[in-house]
Amino acid sequence: MRVRYFVPLVICLLLLTIYVPLHAQTVVTTAADSTCVRFIQTAFQQVGTNCANLEAGSLCYGHPNVSANIDETAVKNFSKIADRLSLENFTSIHTEDYDPAENNFGIAVMNIQASLPRAFPGKGAVMMAFGETTITNAVTPEDALILPEKAIDIIVGANGADLYNVPTGFNVPSQPFGSVPKGTTLQADGISVDAQWLRIYAPHKETFDENVVAWIKTASLVQGLDLSNLPTITAESYTPMQSFFLTTKFEEPRCKNAVPSLLYIQGPKDTLVDVTVDGAHIRFGSTILLRLLPPGNILQVVVLSGLGVIFPDTPDEIILPPGFETLLCLAPIPEGGNKNTPLVTKNCGSAKPRLLSFDEMQTLSTDFSNLIPENLQYYNTVVPRLVCPSGVGAVICTLELSDPLFAAELSNLCQDGTLPPETCAQLSLPSIFNN
After folding, report:
1. pLDDT of residue 380
2. What distance in Å separates the CA atoms of residue 209 and residue 412, rounded to the nearest whole number?
3. pTM of the entire structure?
4. Average pLDDT, stretch 392-419?
5. Among candidates 17, 79, 56, 61, which has minimal Cα distance to 289?
6. Residue 83 phi, psi (nearest 5)
């Protein structure tokens, strides 16, 4: 049997509810349940208007109830629907689950700069928190990387210039990957500690999707440029909210058949974005979902589109194609410890990628298609279709992908050993790519 899901992101949001008892049994939907589902659907539609054209580095009060720990001088500017503020003003944001008494459902929308350069022509990475979800900024104001309002133009000198992945002194080796001719105008938004390198906007293909960041040596540029206003960028530099701690409710939602409490993040299509969640470095190329599972110390990561990489550039690297999830165990919080500082443990046995089941994809997708407004996304997410042949005994389902170019990339990753055999065995790729 074949089923195609042309659904935006939140369809799969509900794939996650397989861990909530609500979907482990037959649910009788009451009139009240139907009313609250309609209310939540309307709430998301209203957020499309309330948070339209949100700038990178900003937070929008999408729908009540949302609360936040804010700089005292900014409190009066973030108290009602459609209010917006710079993420520099926030310590934490909390959205409330559906409240039948007040008929509210908290939704907050953020556009974070994350690892994207200032010259990138987009709105950063889109983050949407809803239900009972708390996001605590792990980037202190004094340590935050604040990019200039506009990248500066730089000009390549008479001998041309090489482009590098990173400058020397970062966590991975500095290697050239291309070059640009003399006279080329580039856009820079940061400088290395030794002032020998500039970070620039330079899209280029890497193993996983496109990277839009590169580095160039200042010695190869036309001299006399004023670089004094550029911020210093190191391997540990984070823009506001690029690193955060996440807490979500994992009990049954008050509104049956409604979306669970979680965090949705979408980056530009096929473009690498780096964030750190509860101490776990996550690099993704399109759309992911995050939430905690019972008993509260398991971080679930689901990839809806593109590729997700957990612990990139390390021996512990985990690669997730769309339709796959991984579970990361969080270290227990010591007595009297800070509940906002969990760390992913390295000895967690749940990190192996798992393909979501046919039932998980089918059960909740129908009722929740087109939930998130199009204007808040870069693109509508198309969930890959899961094919489960009929027959007796153990049925092996495989994932089919609608984009032939992406299917070809996955096939190449399978052939060169980047993707593990057990993952590749669950991907149904065109035969032309398997020869």
Report:
1. 81
2. 13
3. 0.87
4. 84
5. 17
6. -65, 145
